[in-house]
Amino acid sequence: MCDAPKSADLLAWYDRHARELPWRVGPADRAAGVVPDPYAVWLSEIMLQQTTVAAVRDYFTRFMTLWPTVEALADADDDRVMGEWAGLGYYARARNLLKCARVVAQMGAFPRTRAALEELPGIGPYTSAAIAAIAYDLPETVVDGNVERVMSRVFQIETPLPDAKPEMKQRAASLTPDARPGDYAQAVMDLGATICTPKSPACGICPWNRHCQARAAGVQATLPARAPKTPKPTRYGVAYLARRTDGLWLVERRPEKGLLGGMFGWPGADWGDTATEAPPIPANWRDPKVEVRHTFTHFHLRLSLRVASVPVDAAPNKGTFRAIRPSDLPTVMRKAFDVATATLPD
Fold first, then answer.
1. Is the pLDDT of residue 345 over 70?
2. Residue 28: half-sphere exposure toward Cβ, Cα within 13 Å
3. 274 exposed, middle or buried (CB, 10 Å; 0-12, 13-18, 19+)?
4. DSSP character for 72?
5. How far, in Å, CA of 335 to CA of 79, rounded?
6. Angle between helices 165-175 and 145-154 (to 10 degrees)
7. C-alpha 264, offset from chain centre
8. Same fold, 7-222 and 234-341
9. How confident is the model at residue 327, as a pLDDT?
């Protein structure tokens, strides 16, 4: 049986090998008294949900340039923010981002406790713990996918995910120190991201390798165990892409609730077991015979297209429409646009 790992060993490793991230105050700067900006911590954590560090870097930098404070973001135009978010996915996060910014701006500052943070729009248990630990150096336990993987290996937790989550969180809490909890939270995440990786973990250079029960048993590469995945269902839909004679395209705002809520996109019937025809405008709709496929978290989408040229005064049957040049649409809508533009004459 291996001894329990020590937070001091991990912090010593972090002091030498911490990743340089645009939203992070590194250990040397923090030791020198530089205080993390809660706004930057919050913004990065919201962006990083279900997304990689590599994907978030440019978005974070752009957001901080456009809206350097929570007050600036609170005053931003909704459509501009949603447009800048395009490509990060999970658009409910962007809607909650604005809601949260406006609440915090009214409050005058971010709350300083996990419980109060969790009352804000879009902030759940993980995000509240991350902000409390990283921004305010409170001894909160932060558990993301990287931390789960580290805990599963260090303590050889063989219960499959998601059933193993409570034990992983308990184990992680047992290691969270009172000293430098913010640096420690980031150190565990860095360990999982750079050393204790999903495949081929670099155990030889891990600061906790002498304490890792899975390594001692030779099963580190098999953990964390996961329950068999349920196959994703497939949904079908039809998207109507209408180009006006002035070169603009007609899009509609999707309902606030639901997938891609509040975003502009191509009109069409709800996605379901079959593709339902629902032309929004009387026109000579053509079928380019090309299907757009896209995978969301919980289902696959197969989208048929209808394309038409319409006059400038074309009047949609219903809904909130806008004429735009589609550059900042959600990914699946851009895929449809790329297909449509290849089928229309210049």
1. no
2. 5
3. exposed
4. H
5. 20
6. 80
7. 19
8. no
9. 67
Q: Which of the residues 45, 140, 148, 252 is marked catalytic? A: 45
Q: What tokens does 340 get?
A: 């449509």
* For the chain, domain boundaries: 7-222, 234-341
Kind of pairing, strands 234-244 and 249-253? antiparallel
Question: Residue 119 half-sphere exposure, CB side, CA atoms within 13 Å?
Answer: 9
Q: What is the DSSP letter of 257?
A: S
Decide: residue 206, CB within 10 A, 0-12 exposed, 13-18 middle, 19+ buried.
buried
Tell me, yes or no, if 45 is annotated catalytic: yes
Give the pLDDT confidence of 73-124 residue by residue, as tens digits.
999 999 889 889 988 877 788 889 999 999 999 999 999 999 999 999 999 9
Rounded CA separation 57/20 (Å) = 11
- Per 3-state DSSP, what percentage of the chain is helix, strand, and coil (rounded to 5)? 40, 10, 45
Domain at 7-222: CATH architecture = Orthogonal Bundle (1.10)
Angle at 21 between CA 15 and CA 26, to 5 degrees: 30
In single-letter form, the type of residue at position 49 comes to: Q
CATH topology assigned to domain 234-341: Nucleoside Triphosphate Pyrophosphohydrolase (3.90.79)
Give alpha helix (H) positions in 176-263. 181-194, 213-217
Summarised one tens digit per residue, pLDDT across range 234-293 is 999 999 998 888 888 888 888 777 777 777 888 888 888 888 888 888 889 999 888 899
Number of other residues whose CB lies within 10 A of the CB of residue 58: 11
| Mean of per-residue pLDDT scores for the chain | 91
Residue 218, token pair as written in the block: 């030779």
d(CA 136, CA 182): 7
pTM over 0.85: no
User: Using an 8 Å Cβ cutoff, are 303 and 237 in contact?
Assistant: yes
Distances (CA, A) of 108 to 103, 136, 269, 270: 9, 16, 43, 41
